[in-house]
Hints:
Helix content is about 55%, strand content about 10%. It is α/β, with parallel strands linked by helices. The protein has a 4-stranded parallel sheet with strand order 2-1-5-6, with helices on both faces. The chain has a two-stranded antiparallel ribbon with strand order 3-4. α1 (about 15-25) links the parallel β1 and β2 (about 35). α7 (about 175-180) packs across α8.
Amino acid sequence: MGKVYGYIRVLSAEQDVESEVITMHEMQVPDRDIFIDKQVNGESSSLQYEKLMKKLRDKDLLYMKSLDVLGTDYGEIGRQWRRLTKERKADVVVLDMPMLDTRRGKTQCGALVGDVVLAMLEYVSDMEWAARRQKQSVGIERARSRGVQFGRPELPWTDSFERAYQMWRKKEIKGEEAAELCNISRALFYKRAGKLKELEEQGMQCHG
């Protein structure tokens, strides 16, 4: 077994961080190996998480209170779970869900716990993605029924654009970074993002 780490992310002003630190101590995690990210100017930081990722190695053990410390949606949680368990090959224990202990799966027949969790997260993420695309389609059809024309060069929703757009909407990245991910100018990204946001809102109103 390797080193033992703990990760805490502050998600609200009411969160009792001290009690979480005490819990990490109970799990035999030393203070120097507890990484805590806090909100900065109302936005959640990932600075300490990235420092932790640089330290994690094969057979290390990571404790966290809940899965939502890894991201704001199932897609992001799944990506981070893959980084931890597949790329870093670390074991993960989710304290508020005792069944999510990747060490257990290694002593049983069948799929590893980590693989099962990843498959579940990717499935739910795909369902959410499909639902968003459906809402956008409804918005497009509603706009077309009002006579709005969509020129081919202006259609913004390639997969790379939509993923960057969703990350930007959740304030995970800045507009300049989103534009770089899509390989377009920042001005064009904002223009297309505004159109996509409008269509999403129209789709939600149609379903409401």
